[in-house]
């Protein structure tokens, strides 16, 4: 559908179109459309802008990624449809590998997502080769598959828009978890080490930019940024940011 230039919600409609095209191309799970709707509602409360507390989480995430030894960026259907090129830029800036890892299992879809990332410039994308598949302890066979060379071997995992059980399994496996989740109340948001409460359509590229900006900094300076970050406190601040925005616009 053509979105008129004058439409007041043009940006949001264009993002929806990207997801629908992703569904038609066999990248996105049908459930991905509903997951996006939930995210949109929280983005509305944020004023559809990257807030101060999301920026703080983005800085901490960049520092953790640059300090990591084996970082990995996990890509699902929604991420591939909404920001494949930006995720590839992040992998490059953070010297991380990429793994296609989907919640709703389907080998064909994983292969299409890997091809999409490669089309955007990624090399050696993991997750589509059945021989390299292992399983995250504490998850079911269908939900816990992960690549032995990728997520299973990583110390830091970026898992945007992730399911709560899988995030808990990653933590139990000793990984540092960075997520993007517009819902600050979700289990993933509360379980991850760093939750970026921002739309991935804005935040992914900003994270790549920060990794490039911080790449010349030494480990002590990066570690200071990480030490000054508290995920629970930051989530509480994001919730206050949303409620303050609501009061300003609608209640006061
Ligand atoms: O491609 P698959 O099979 O891996 O499936 C992907 C989805 C997203 C369907 C799957 O991982 C899923 O069901 O996720 P959940 O459990 O619904 O969690 C997704 C979270 O991401 C929710 O808390 C949403 O609020 C949030 N979210 C949705 N869209 C965005 C978002 N957060 C940031 N940016 C978005 N664009």
Secondary structure topology:
Layout: H1 10-24, H2 30-45, H3 52-67, E1 71-75, H4 77-93, E2 97-100, H5 107-119, E3 133-135, E4 145-147, E5 156-158, H6 164-172, E6 176-180, H7 187-191, E7 194-196, H8 200-214, H9 219-227, H10 231-251
Parallel strand pairs: 1-2, 1-5, 5-6, 6-7
Antiparallel strand pairs: 3-4
Helix pairs in contact: 1-2, 1-4, 3-8, 3-9, 3-10, 4-5, 4-8
The protein binds ligand PTJ.
Ligand PTJ binds at residues 29, 31-32, 35-36, 38-39, 42, 76-78, 82, 102-104, 161-163, 180-183, 186, 199-201.
Give a description of the structure.
The chain is α/β, with parallel strands linked by helices. It has a single domain (52-243), classed as Rossmann fold, CATH 3.40.50.12640. It contains 10 helices and 7 strands. It has helices at 10-24, 30-45, 52-67, 77-93, 107-119, 164-172, 187-191, 200-214, 219-227, 231-251; strands at 71-75, 97-100, 133-135, 145-147, 156-158, 176-180, 194-196. The strands form 2 sheets. A 5-stranded parallel β-sheet has the order 2-1-5-6-7, sandwiched between helices. Strands 3-4 form a two-stranded antiparallel sheet. Strand 6, helix 7 (187-191) and strand 7 form a beta-alpha-beta unit. Helix 1 crosses helix 4. The relative contact order is 0.16. The chain binds ligand PTJ. Ligand PTJ binds at residues 29, 31-32, 35-36, 38-39, 42, 76-78, 82, 102-104, 161-163, 180-183, 186, 199-201.
